[in-house]
Amino acid sequence: MSFPKGFLWGGAIAANQAEGAYAEGGKGLTTVDLLPTGKKRFDVMFGELPSLEPMPGEFYPSHEAIDFYHRYKEDIALFAEMGFKALRLSIAWSRIFPNGDDVEPNEEGLQFYDDVFDELLKHGIEPVVTIAHFDVPVSLIKKYGSWRNRRVVDFFETYAKTLFTRYNGKVKYWMTFNEINMLLHLPFIGAGIVFEDGEDKQQVKYQAAHHQLVASAKAVKAAHEINPDLQVGCMLAAGQTYAYSCNPNDVLDAMDKDRESFFFIDVQSRGEYPGYAKRYLEEQGITLQIEEGDLELLKEHTVDYIGFSYYASRTTSTDPEINQSTEGNIFSSLENPFLEKSEWGWTIDPTGFRITANQLYDRYQKPLFVVENGLGAVDTPDATGYVEDDYRIDYMAKHIEQMHEAIKDGVEIIGYTSWGPIDLVSASTGEMKKRYGFIYVDKDNEGNGTLTRSKKKSFDWYKQVIATNGADVTTPVQTTKS
């Protein structure tokens, strides 16, 4: 079981979940800096924001996160020891433009990412960079209402051009928005949207979506003008939706739920609004404000590849007697009797990974990049920080095997960056105990701990996977305790 030559094995992190240093280096406040832990977190993510400043008495995990900002050399050295070919990471918009609409970029922020990219390249690791990963400068919300306002398109274009110019020659692979379809489910984290009393939320979300799609096309245009060799992708939170039964109404409902996410990628990859989306907008009474030239821009500047995350599949039914959702992911799902679940209620479905990859490739016929996949679990370290995480090895081995089956099916996949190769703050819950990494970080949900890094059993396993280009996913005999 060998993967294509040059396959980009690695891992993925995000600035807001790893960097910390939320008020250092000239950085401005960003959306995730307003996400506390506990019950209030989801209220904020859904756009019910009580304050545009951190609230006294609340714990904000992004403020320190795992301190990648100060420890990136140590972490990159560990990634290099595993043999990483690529590291997907994001740039914090408010490190570059603290207010989002600044006339000049923040040099200290630009230099920080210069240093990170240089460190990666020194170790032979390709940076794969997301321009906006759940990250909107708070000042843009206060002054303009964030992505509901057309002016933010221009600010994003300036931001993207600044990055493409500054890091030309260091970064080849870019993505415009992380899991862009999350805008519809978590509008604050996806687009910095704060709802006003009585307004049409669907109208606001889809207008913001149009603005992000136009901004993405403008970024693709700018990148290719600056350097035709740059590769700019889109990115969605993917996962096959199964019909609970062969009732045609269930099948139609599953198709509609998948299309809710595909809508964004249809525009970014095919360059136009699909018919089903136009029908939905019309039937919902949603009228988009589309400026002259927008549709031509979308058509002429489509993405080069499709990035996607895959953690779980979903199941749906139109039968009210069985239509009870499970816990877990932002996407509601019925219990699937054929699948096991993680500790957070997410279905474990390696075959669904293969199905999803085939579905995306059949639909778009563009290279795919698996930029997130992994198992969030409670890890119990021994006194040295070592974790026997065979459950993670088993999960990932089965998913990698199914990814290889998809490649044998004819799907073009250029890389796989697991989420996240080092423990970091969970985007959904804000927890540290929901761990994904091959590297354990000594920190708990309340922010206590030394931040010491230590290798889990999966560290050597993934090192072996990369060294054999995916040919050997068995559990290694020798493990490293350090």
TrEMBL record:
Database matches in Pfam families: Glyco_hydro_1
GO MF assignments: beta-glucosidase activity
InterPro entries in UniProt: GH, GH_1_N_CS, Glyco_hydro_1, Glyco_hydro_1_AS
GO cellular component terms attached to this protein's record: cytosol
Catalytic site positions: E372
Gene3D superfamilies: Glycosidases
UniProt key word Heme: no
Keyword Nucleotidyltransferase among record annotations: no
Keyword annotations: Glycosidase, Hydrolase
Example GO biological process: carbohydrate catabolic process
Family that this chain belongs to: Belongs to the glycosyl hydrolase 1 family.
Protein name as annotated: Glycoside hydrolase family 1
Lineage: Bacteria, Bacillati, Bacillota, Bacilli, Bacillales
